[in-house]
Fold this protein.
Amino acid sequence: MAPKKSKKSKQEDSMIDFVEEEVSGDVDEEGFEEAEDIVVDSEEDEPPKKKKKVIKKEVKQELELTDEKLQELLEKYEASKSTATKTKDDFKHLPKSQRGKALKRALRKDKRARQEERTKIRDELGESAPQKEVPKTIESMREYDATMVDEQDDEVEHDEANDEFAPYFNRETTPKVMITMTPKAKITTFKFCFELQKCIPNSEMFTRKNVLLKTIIEQAKEREFTDLLVVHEDRKKPNGIIFCHLPEGPTAYFKINSLTFTQDLKKFGESTAHFPEVILNNFNTRLGHNIARMLACLFPHDPKFTGRRVVTFHNQRDYIFFRHHRYEFKKEGTKAALLELGPRFTLRLKWLQKGTFDAKWGEFEWVLKRHEMETSRRRFFL
Amino acid sequence: MDCYIGATTGTFKGALLKDNTFENLNKVSTLDPKSDEITSMIWNDDQQTEILIARMNRDLQLYDIEQNEQVSILTVTGGTGPIKGLHKLDEKIVTCVESGELQVWNDKSETVSEWKCGPGVAVMRGSDEKPEIVTGGMKNLLKTWNLETGQQVWSAKNVPPDMLGLEIPIMITDARFIPGENTILEATKLHEMRVYDPRAQRRPVKKIVFMENPIMCTSLTNKTNQILAANSIGEMGLFDLRSKVHPMCKFKGQAGSIRSISGHPTMPLAASVGIDRFLRVHDLQTRKMVHKVRQLSKDLFFSIFEFQIYCKARLNRVLLRNELSILNDRKSAAKKEIDEDEAEYGKMTEDGYRSEGDDDDVIEEDDVWDVMEPVAKKKKMSHDDVEIVEEVENQKAKRKRKAVVVPEEEIKEEVESDDDVEEIQKPSPKKTLKSGKKVLLKKKARKV
């Protein structure tokens, strides 16, 4: 590092350069123009001295990008990634109560500055710039799960070829859905069931009338229903949904979160009777696969593409987002416009049970045990 | 292979704990779960070289571990439903199907004898000590049968009706003889286990309630009187049949119903499988999933990785081998250690564990006595001193008292502390408990 005096002199030089360039105007090369812009920016922002120096260097390197310079730039790039310039000791002069805040503020500023520095280095490096890092989100740092399903796995394929949903996927059955609710359901629950019925083709809605769920299942089997949805409510609002595949199960219980009815959406359309397309996103583990297959079983096989209706089940951090849209291609055919149709809600799996509904004597395939299983924020099951 | 696992898809798997892997021992693609699901599995011999496997279509197969071959030996006929239990007794195989037809086969796969033990059988298990088997199931009370004569030896009686006078449903899911105790353990869907003593009465002598979901399976462990049980949401507990504390501990890790547990006969290990598709091996001493190197004694290490193997299919049955790849061959040392540990657990009371009459404890007490002797002498001295002090106080000669008493007060303190020690020595029940705990703590500290 150069001593302070030289720094100052360099700064002055740069100032002079800048003035000269401005005078000389458009004559310079393109590269120079860019550099000039950068200098102007830095002047306006009044950044710390150190940064100016860096920029100055860049200007010089722009002229001749040799291997050595490239190495140097890369090193600098790495350095600007990792090292923070401010430390706790820089704020010793402040009273104790203010130090923390000041440090935080300074660090944030510093981070921003380093980010800008990096973008500039990237611009200079052009094609030889190092790859941008993938942002660290909770999902991208997800804990390793042994049950992730590979695409080519004979055993899982064999398992899935013989499970309860196989008849649907072999096109031996067509879905027929029964929707019912808790006994003495209130108006919002009815409303929710109506919306579900609109959205799921070939579904029928029944009031519960105090019939036991096990008898309902028997009756539904007789009438050849393939799925049963029971909406539960709490405080006059739907809060849960039992999803039972017939005739052999399995049964899943989902919690309903953040429910928005169609009427409450800012802009909404009217649903049509076309068979919708189904999108199932991010169901990667073995359990997730099962749930996705289960959800797919609700909808008929061949979507009518003329209806342009889409039902989406998007899994993100174990919450399954339900959306219902009509899409429309713009003239160029590159972008699609979406019009939301159905209700909007989020599901969270609470348990999955083998066989039809039998909460007391049944065997559970998977149960969410919150304190035992939620060991980390980055652990997901679907 | 350390563990042999039977899956609901019909695959037969061998798991190697050392590498944390599993392997399919038959071809997957040809299997049909509706006929090939493995419903029961036992060792064919004591050396653990052959396994008897019962399939859903009631085929009985013999698997040779060394040759890695499966041979069909017989198909059970008569009755309906899958085979619910297998037992091997001197070249004879006992099978029991769900509808209650119990058959004894000889080594030429011919039926020797046959009788019925009532419909809805859920479990049939044999005894290692005598030629008897126990059966039970849904609406089918626990019965023991003599294999030679085919006669019913003993049958249970249902527990008395509840406070409303309603009959308690009979829902047996698992039953087994407790070796060395002449008792029978029964697990029910009513989240209750019952211990029967056939010599005493027909009703259970003990009931153990565990959580709130149906108990699916039980297992023996390396210690007599300790058993494992697991329920339909994957809660597994360790129980001592003598104690009143239930469960002694719960094991973590399982996400779904456990179908089978297999305890190791000598080491404190147990493997469990269930329909959450995982094989898990737990350490019964640390009560955790075995997953790291653990020191058993000064020069003997368990070298262990995480034993939670994802087996890709729902699992029905598991058998844990006696010789495990994760154990060192210096078994004798390990055994010693286990014996010590067993002694450490000692008798249990409602307050928890208490060591009593332990070898180590005796030594500890001796040590205490060694310390005690001089103290006792001092104490006699100090008694007199105390009297003197009192006299001095009566005289109210403050200055004198200060001059004389200060050293004596020190002695007084000593006396008090010594008194405590002596009280502990006397057999007053509460204090001994404390001392026992202290001793335990000391021991632990020393081990650490």
